[in-house]
Every structure is written in structure tokens, then in C-alpha cells.
Amino acid sequence: MTLNDIAAHRRSIRKYNGQPISREELETLIRFAQEAPSWKNMQTSRYHIVCSLETIAAARQCLGGSNPQKTENTAALIVTTFKHDIVGHTNGIPDNEGGNGWGWYDLGLQNAYLLLKAAEMNLDTLVIGIRHANQLRALLQIPEDETIGAVIAVGHRVEDAKRPPRKELDDIARFY
């Protein structure tokens, strides 16, 4: 499968069938995500992988909006974080106006790698930004020096999702 095929296949899935995923598969996702570039190779992204049914149920209650329903029967939840005040900082002082934004950037790159690897492995994902970070932090004992970015549901889809339309290239790109 080519990268184009993987990108074309990958969708945000909101209904899962409950089929389990092995620890080895989850480790493969994280190892691949680590291959993404990061500021000065600082590698501040962290992953809190929720794979026991009991903890998944508790973590789902820390999700906002309709996300607890959308993650029903998911095989795992991955809470992605980054250690703040490191990436984009020198001796605790921001290197430029991006500051901790570079930590978000690096985490986003790693999350994108994770999503693409999951699709290659025929695993489905949903990136969740509406969550109660403090509840997740308490439940999973996430250190205070980590900023919680997203929660990624991982599992096997019940049904296919349609590809949403994309904007025209002329609407998003300027060539000079």
C-alpha cells in the first residue's frame, strides 16, 4: 500500500466493534510515531496508553461532548502529551513567539505519523480534542510538566466513513 493509498483509506471513525488490539500493535504505533521529526530532536512527546477495559471505561468518562458515545467499543485510548517549557525554549525562555507552540507542533507531527501507521495496519482512529484534561491527568497520573494534547481512539471500524470534501488547492496554497 502506498502512502497515497494509506491517506485515502484513513478516516476518523466513530463506531468501533470491540475487537481487541495487542500490546505489540500499540507499541508498533508508538515506535513509528517516534520517527517523526522534533525540535532539536528533543522528543518531548509522551503517550499514555489505556488498554484495559476498566480503565478505558473510566477514561471515556473524561471525554467531552458526544465523545464518550463515539468511543464505545474502542480497543484502546492513547492520551498524547508533551513536556512543556522545553521545546522552543532555551533555559526556560521561549526561543521565539512560538514558545510551547513548538511542543504542540512536534506532538501533532508524531500524532500524524501514528494515525498513518494505524491505517497501514488496518486499525482505525479518532482524534479527540474535546476532553477534560484535569480528569485525565488525575485518572492516569499524568505529570504536571506534561501538556495534554489529544486523545486518540484506536480500534476496528463497524462501518466505513465517507471522505469529507477537501478545499481546492487554489483556496489553500499560494505559489511564489
How are helices and strands ordered from N to C? Answer: HHEHHEEEHEHEH
Give the structural class.
alpha+beta
CATH superfamily: NADH Oxidase
Strand order of the largest sheet: 1-2-6-5
Shape: globular
Plain-language structure description:
By secondary structure, this protein is α+β, with helices and mostly antiparallel strands. The chain has a single domain (12-159), classed as NADH Oxidase, CATH 3.40.109.10. 35% of the residues lie in helices and 19% in strands. The chain is built from 7 helices and 6 strands; from the N terminus they run ααβααβββαβαβα. It has helices spanning 3-9, 23-33, 53-60, 67-70, 101-120, 133-140, 169-172; strands at residues 45-50, 76-83, 89-90, 93-94, 124-128, 146-155. The strands form 2 sheets. The protein has a 4-stranded antiparallel sheet, sandwiched between helices. Helix 1 crosses helix 5 (101-120) and helix 2 packs across helix 5 (101-120). The chain is globular. 28% of the residues are buried. The mean pLDDT is 94.
